[in-house]
Design a protein that fits this description.
- By secondary structure, the protein is of the alpha/beta class.
- It is built from eleven helices and 15 strands.
- It starts with a helix and ends in a 9-residue tail after the last helix.
Amino acid sequence: MNLNWTKHWNLCPQTLVRQLYRRAVRVINAVYMATPEIAVNCLQKLLNFNDLNIQAVVTQPDRPCGRGKKLTAPPVKDFALAHNIEVLQTESLKNDEALKSKLRELNPDFFITFAFGQLLTEEILAIPKIATINLHASLLPEYRGANPIQRAIYDGKEETGITTMLTVLALDAGDICIQEKIKITPDMTDKELMEIISDKAPFIMYPTIKQLYNKMLTPKKQDESLVTIAKKFKKEDALLDWNRSAQELHNHVRSMTTWPCACSSIDGKNIKILKTTVLENECVNDNPGEIVKISKDGIAVAAKKGILLITELKPEGKPKMDAYAWTNGVQLKVSDMFK
């Protein structure tokens, strides 16, 4: 076995061991297509499987981010570069002839997609020798689309999951490979669910790839009669409607902690509502949005049905804070109204 030690001198020991191992075993080659933070952990864990070689990462272009509009790389790009993985960026893969040519040269067994953010054409899906595998954050066919994590919490689901599937032209409509269920606890937020899915993702993706490669897995068709769609939230969806039940409002708050963040207004000022709990589920109130109690526990607000306790919030132009501490500063009182 000839190894160019000069070329590999600067590689970390783990990377060097992987390369030596891959020269001795049959390796599965894959290109990883992803963009956001949730996909980083999956890539990191997949690198630990010595018979899986991530040839390159395809991701979105760097984009302006934050108040200063500083050009910022996708999280997956930063991780890939730090681990000596080739990064290929494109605004539109379907229109990028040079990148498609590069992918054909790589001749991968699989494309792996996880929150990539671009639709793949039939031409692109034909490039890998075996298949394109997508990891979707729901138990398909439920919650097809761009926002399955937040929608499951918003809808008050007690269970969701992750699915690996064969990618086809129709949105999230491919045959199902492997699924794993995840319990949604009563106070779980979208961020917490994202972290759970991110942790579980590689341990459902790797066996999917391995079993398909060894022809030990037969994907199954989705039941089209059970399809639901998970649409993206818009900024205006953040506004709380106090004519809903306390439980629905609590679901609303915990589903939007990453973005756009639930909000309401009082005395003409916009308040972001960060943490809540349901105090009462059954009582029916004539004045939804009315503050019924202020205590060290927080601000108790009447919903159309039930009482919602606000425990943490962020006033306009200020950092997040304890809800009770905020009431002292603004001299809030019982009978004041959230709108």
